[in-house]
Amino acid sequence: MSKIEEKTQSAAVASGLEGVVAAQTALSRVDGAAGRLIIAGRDLPDLAASMDFEGVTAALWSTAGTPSEVDDTRAALGAARVDAFASVPTLLAASKGLTITEALRVGLSLLPDNHDTAPHVRLMAAMPVFVAALARAAEGKEAIAPDASRRHAEDYLRMLHGKEPAADAADAMDKYLVTVSDHGMNASTFTARVVASTAAEQVSSVLAALCALKGPLHGGAPGPVLDMLDSIGGVANIEPWLREAVMAGDRLMGFGHRIYRVRDPRADVLGSVIAGLSGVEERTAFARQVEATAKAVLKELKPHRPLDTNVEFFTALLLEALAIPREAFTPTFAVGRVAGWTAHVMEQEATGRLIRPSAQYVGALPDDLEVA
Fold first, then answer.
1. Is the pLDDT reported for residue 177 higher than 90?
2. Which residues are bridge partners to 29 per DSSP?
3. At a CB cut-off of 8 Å and minimum separation 6, what does 74 contact?
4. Above pLDDT 90, what percent of the chain?
5. What is the third-level CATH fold of 222-321?
6. How far apart are CA 342 and CA 362, in angstroms?
7. What pLDDT score does 188 carry?
8. Which residues contact 140 (CB under 8 A, 6 or more apart)?
9. In what helix (H) or strand (E) does residue 344 lie, and over which residues does it extend?
10. Are 208 and 322 in contact (CB under 8 A)?
11. Residue 11: pLDDT band by 50, 70, 90 thresholds?
12. Is the distance from CB of 144 to CB of 157 less than 8 angstroms?
């Protein structure tokens, strides 16, 4: 064996970078064994109960090294939403025939690198404006201009539906955005940090994160939860449908998580939010029956695998209850997660270190390399 082969094979390979620490962060901690999520120093349930989305955003930005007061953040986002709306006509003309997620990538690329407003503020503000306009365009409706005086979540629903959102709906959307604002070194966040480590501007870093979010194993997962519920159809079909799916080796959408070995804490927060909404009691009760039966079936048929409810299950129910089009589920996730993306980009930029992992070569070697 050559020295190159010996050196290459001596390096341990972690498939999917499992367990590899790639960065230090003060933004969020995911404890998969305990089912605990800490964001900006606070447990998620406490955060969702005590702070709105602008407050959490300000906390994340401050933790990342950009001091931000809540009132200033709210005012800056409101003004920047109004600025972002000026790009909507260009966005709609340039994105015909694209999905909402694909078109959102076009929208982010339209944001100028040089602007009086800080890039993290512009990125945060543009997300709900662009998503709402694109979702309405998909239904043949005109875009609704932002209202700078409103809360971020409330204005998103208003721009999306073209009417005043109910107070409980606005609060539910706000708590959803808080819940998904950050989640450790997930695929899209890691992508953002890799791009940021090259000293690319923040727009490029967040655009790359959005591309990573598109995949069904990450941000594209909630929609299929509703497809599953629709396919089950009624209460009598729940157990036989689930058993057949598990026995066939199919994945039950909304159950299991790469990190959490127990119940996803975000599921509990969103489950409580849904319980407070009116008009969706029947759908929620059915989903709860599916959840309970699925957990029992999985425990019986896959006793050695810890598969509990994850955030996608209740995300799907909540976004459906808020009348978000299914095609806009992933972009709506981005409306919340961009708070974490921008904070991680700031944190990575402060290190000044290029992320450059190694790879283990397993290919053919030239003839001139001595092999034992």
1. yes
2. 38
3. 54, 151, 152
4. 76
5. Cytochrome p450-Terp; domain 2 (1.10.230)
6. 36
7. 95
8. none
9. helix 329-351
10. no
11. low
12. no
Taking only the tens place, the pLDDT of each residue in 64-85 is: 999 999 999 999 999 999 999 9
Q: What's the pLDDT tens digit per position in 24-71? A: 999 999 998 888 999 999 999 999 999 999 999 999 999 999 999 999
pLDDT at 259 exceeding the cut of 80: no
Catalytic residue status for 282 = no
82-91 CB burial, b ≥16 within 10 A, e <16: ebbbebbeeb
- pLDDT of the residue at 8: 46
- The segment(s) of the chain belonging to CATH 1.10.230.10 are 222-321
Q: Give the residue range(s) of CATH 1.10.580.10 domains in the chain.
A: 28-218+331-351
Q: Give the whole-angstrom CA distance, residue 30 versus residue 48.
A: 16
Tokens in use for 314?
Answer: 């209740």
Annotated active-site residue in 312, 320, 347, 349: 312
Indicate which residue of 120, 161, 257, 344 is catalytic: 257
Stated length of the chain: 372
Q: Which tokens sit at 355?
A: 């992320």
Is 304 catalytic? The answer is no
> Amino acid identity of 127?
M
Hey, is 68 helix, strand or coil?
coil
Annotate 233-275 with DSSP letters as a single string: -SGGGHHHHHHHHHHTT---TTB--SS-SS--HHHHHHHHHHH
Residue 28 DSSP label: E
| pLDDT of 1 strictly over 70 | no
CB 187 within 8 A of CB 220: no
| Class of the CATH domain delimited by 28-218+331-351 | mainly alpha
Tokens of 366: 């030239």
